[in-house]
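Lab notebook: predicted structure, single chain.

Context: the supervisor wants predicted structures on file for every construct in the current expression panel, including those that have not yet been purified. This is the next one on the list. No modifications to the sequence; it matches the entry in the shared construct table.
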Amino acid sequence: MKISELSSRTQVPKETIHFYVREGLIPRPRKRGKNVADYDEGYIERILLIKEIQDHFFLPLSYIKEIIKRQNKSPELKALLKLRMGYFSPLDQLLEKEVVGVEAFAKATGMGKKWIDKFIKWGIITPESRNGEDVYSQDDVILGRLLVDLDRAGFGPKDGVDPSVVKGYIKIYNQIVKMAHGSFLKTKPDQLTPEENLAKGIRGRELMGVFFYHLYRKLAREVEDQSNSRKTV
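Prediction complete. Output recorded below exactly as produced.
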């Protein structure tokens, strides 16, 4: 295809596409003439990936170039990148999105009514009742999508995984959150204005969320390494 079609299908200006080529973000196209270049379908996927990374992570092009270079060599990294873009969008975190009604929640998450009822009963999904309607928070929607994706990835009931184990997670995390809040209350909040306390609390909550995300990944790797070491002995 010509660059005009590529620009139209990706919604990226021609000048930007030329810039991507010069910077090595996309390969140089095959020439069909002195001033005519031919772009195949692979360029669309790559340019859209660059846009997605920019929209989700606001990274400079030098970082994006390295990410694309690595993910081209690793199918695992490519899958991880798509997963992170699906669940870690900064704009989604800034713009809270609620879902009203169980049917809308099922559509947003792909979860069946039977499992929605179970996860509500177990305290994983906690809709708020407003004007006779169940209102699901953005966190509820993300948790619902994650649970569905876990099932699709081979970690569901049909694979021998007992979903009710999440009840234990709730109990443990409740204790962790209460511990964190207890520590926060010891930081002399009375010395701050209400607005400063609110800002500090929000920042602490988000930082702790990122902390536990990375802590889980670190500990999971260590458990996997220990398990693999025992198998090779």
